[in-house]
Automatic annotation (TrEMBL):
Gene3D superfamilies: Mitochondrial carrier domain. It comes from Clitoria ternatea (Butterfly pea). Belongs to the mitochondrial carrier (TC 2.A.29) family. The lineage of its organism: Eukaryota, Viridiplantae, Streptophyta, Embryophyta, Tracheophyta. It is a multi-pass membrane protein. It is found in: Mitochondrion inner membrane. This is Mitochondrial carrier protein. Keywords: Membrane, Mitochondrion, Mitochondrion inner membrane, Repeat, Transmembrane, Transmembrane helix, Transport. Solcar repeats lie at residues 12-132, 144-242, 255-343. It comes from the Eukaryota. The keyword Signal does not apply.
Length: 352
């Protein structure tokens, strides 16, 4: 890393790091959410979630429209193949046509509620872990220094993932399932309540058991996110360092943004492609509606089931929108985060 970057790392407080990360997460979540919806819909469809146009609508309760609704149901079901998603652009087209343009941002509230605290924990912890480990390895084991980003990224991501996982579960369910009735779609809290509602029981032990369902699929999430972070940071740091070293001490706002966005884009693209099967397994576990069955599912058995049903193609369902989302997302988060750190660092220098 360049001296400028290192200095800004050591002089910023945890609060300033968290502010930088939260702002980056806010911008990224809004920009890439439609691609996240497309990826989740394609993976949920492969897992058996039906997207059959009017077939997915709930039945009306009044007798006066039962016959009409029955006719619409039959017509919709007979043309079900026309509502089968064929790819990312097809998801966009059919979601806009059948559910409305704003549905492409379904789950954005959950994405913000998730990404702001997650990235607010993740990025500052990565900085802190990396700086501590680099200082230790440089003095005691220089040969291990190149592996610091891998270990620091994995540790920071694990901490952030475990802390904020229930909101990730809610976001996936909000994006995967279509509206089943008229009116306002359920929010984060209502979605989470629906996860634990099917389990009855009044004892304290049973109530505690119910809330375990909020961490359904955590193993799959960690199995995806830890390798993703390890690959991402191991790729990002050398690329970023090479670009910043070419600039030297003449780094400007434009070069800081460019170096970090380029490195983040390449790293995010490679990491998302490599971990796509784990993302498919995570989605399938999170959308499982039977709570008891969801708890018994493991990443290994889910991957085997996906391979048995769809082979290699099944393991890479939604890889297009996933890569299209991850590259820009990582680039935006890292470049905005480092830009704010750069600005705060220069403000400290000016004030002192």
């Amino acid at each position: 890393m360049s001296s400028t970057n290192s200095n800004s790392d050591t002089q910023l407080t945890i609060g300033e790091r968290a502010f930088s990360a939260a702002g980056a997460a806010f911008i990224s979540a809004i920009i890439v959410n439609p691609l996240d919806v497309a990826k989740t819909r394609l993976q949920a469809q492969a897992a058996g979630v039906p997207y059959q146009g009017v077939c997915g609508m709930a039945s009306f309760q009044t007798n006066s429209v039962t016959f009409i609704h029955s006719m619409l149901h039959d017509i919709g079901c007979s043309s079900g193949r026309n509502n089968h998603y064929k790819g990312t652009l097809d998801v966009f087209y059919k979601v806009i046509r059948q559910e409305g343009f704003t549905r492409l941002w379904r789950g954005t509230g959950a994405s913000l509620a998730l990404s702001v605290p997650t990235v607010g924990i993740y990025m500052p912890c990565y900085d802190i872990f990396r700086n501590m480990m680099e200082e230790f390895t440089t003095q005691n084991a220089p040969t291990l220094t190149p592996y610091v980003p891998l270990v620091a990224g994995s540790a920071a991501r694990s901490l952030a993932c475990i802390s904020c996982y229930p909101v990730e579960l809610a976001r996936t369910r909000m994006q995967a399932f279509r509206l089943t009735q008229r009116g306002k779609p359920p929010g984060v809290w209502k979605t989470l309540h629906g996860v634990i509602h099917p389990v009855d029981g009044t004892s304290i032990l049973h109530s505690f058991h119910r809330y375990r369902f909020w961490w359904t699929g955590l193993g799959a999430q960690l199995s995806r996110d830890v390798p993703f972070s390890a690959i991402c940071w191991s790729t990002l740091e050398p690329i970023r360092k090479s670009i910043l070293d070419l600039v030297g001490d003449g780094a400007t706002v434009a070069t800081v943004l460019g170096a970090n966005f380029s490195a983040g884009f390449v790293a995010g693209t490679l990491a998302s492609a490599a971990t796509c099967p784990l993302d498919v397994a995570k989605t399938r576990r999170q959308i499982e509606k039977d709570p008891e069955r969801a708890l018994k599912m493991t990443t290994r058995t889910t991957l085997i089931a996906i391979w048995r049903d769809g082979g290699f193609r099944g393991l890479y369902t939604g890889v297009g929108p996933r890569i299209g989302r991850a590259g820009p997302s990582v680039g935006i988060v890292v470049s905005f985060y480092e830009f704010v750190k750069y600005a705060l660092h220069h403000r400290h220098q000016t004030s002192s």
